[in-house]
Amino acid sequence: MKNIKSFLAVCAIFTLVLAGCSKDEPGTNDGPASSETAILQLGPILNSPETRAAIRQQEGQDIPDCSDEAPGFAQLSIIYGPDDTVKENIIIPILEDDQGLFTAYSEELELPIPAGETTVSVTLTQFVVWTNDGGSPGEVIWVAPIEGSEYADFVDQPVGENFTFDLRAGSKNYINVDVICYDDRDVNLYGYQFFTITPIPLIKFCIFGNYCTPEGRHFVASYSVNVWESNDGQKGDPIYTGLQNVVEGEGGDAYSDPLCFFLPDRLDVDDNEEEYYVEITLLSDTPGYNGPDIVFAEGPITVTEIKLFFGEDGTLDYYHFQYGCDDGVPPPFGQPETKRYKACIKYLDDSDEVAGFAYLSLEGSVLQAVTSVFGLKVGEMHPQHIHENASCGDYGPVAVSLDYNEGGFPVAQLFNNVSFLNYAETIPGFFLQDLEDRTVVIHGKDVNGEYVATEPVACGEFEEY
């Protein structure tokens, strides 16, 4: 794993998903279709200035003025199928060709056809259009009014329980949606009084990987990623399914960019509490690899841990796995058969601005240990140990030293003007039990103007994850 540089709270606006158009066959939108599914794509249709003027005269009230900004993303909610399955706040880019606007293909809108049927019923309940602000949603500019709202008469077909249509199996179905311009002072008049039209803060996370043959030759990896919401290390609702990197070329000449995606970074949830469960699968078409698809890395990651991959200058590092190589699968993820433990490291004295993480991965009697700590004395060696007890209030005697096999403890370095200690080591012949009832203690700080290597400075309590 590359050196992680520093904390930086970086937010992106959640990519909104949707596209469609009033045409028979848009040319820029390829996606899978089968006899068991139907693909929904939507096309926002904004009424003309002349129509808006006529509405003003006929209705005797003002229709909101329009922004000059171009549409970039759509956000929608639907109900579909015999069980009235609900999908809310689906976010999709809006594309455009010579026939108009349309939403991009999305797996979220590839809907299953009920057994024995050739169509599936869909109801569009919400539809909002955003601008494109540097590749992320910016501001709301158009909205489809909801049935029964003050502005519902401004369109031929408002969204809601009567905006229902059937999608045919094995085909792409393009549905037009009437939208009007948006004024944030009048959100209730569109019928969205129970729906807050606000950007969703996001954070970007990237993954890159290599595969090593038993002989040690490196190849770029072909891999897929699944992501779920997570609570206490358990999988929740899926967010992404089957994300894949793109490998160009063959054999040793193959190459790939990191696979990047966005995850919510909610302002009302503590970064240490907001977590996601990631599963990485090595694919059989990996250059140099002659095996089946295999899930080799999984586990939860918090927003705080994701922010460790951001540099002080806004640069973004990526999570780097090397399947079959010496570096293997770095934390916070691990191989499915391993036991994994994590400790959130925090200062013992609030005058010391020290924080970080420690990770332990145990397979049999081989321990992989990693610590990443900020705020320590630069240029000094910092002893660190696993201690006997479970609480930082009384961590007890040393159980195992987290030093290098060749001797010595890690030294804090300066990265982008931030003190950072990065340690990773494989410890064979490890037999300490009950790691979830242990602590990690980092030592070394100035005392009365003099550096004391044995002085405890930070501690973390391990828990299995």
TrEMBL record:
Query: Which of UniProt's keywords are assigned here?
Result: Signal
Which range is the signal sequence, renumbered to this chain? 1-19
Instruction: Check the record and name the InterPro entries matching this protein.
Output: SOD-like_Cu/Zn_dom_sf
A GO BP entry is: superoxide metabolic process
Top-level lineage group: Bacteria
PROSITE patterns found in the cross-reference section: PROKAR_LIPOPROTEIN
Q: State a single Gene Ontology molecular function.
A: metal ion binding
UniProt lists the family membership as follows: Belongs to the Cu-Zn superoxide dismutase family.
- The protein here is known as CHRD domain-containing protein
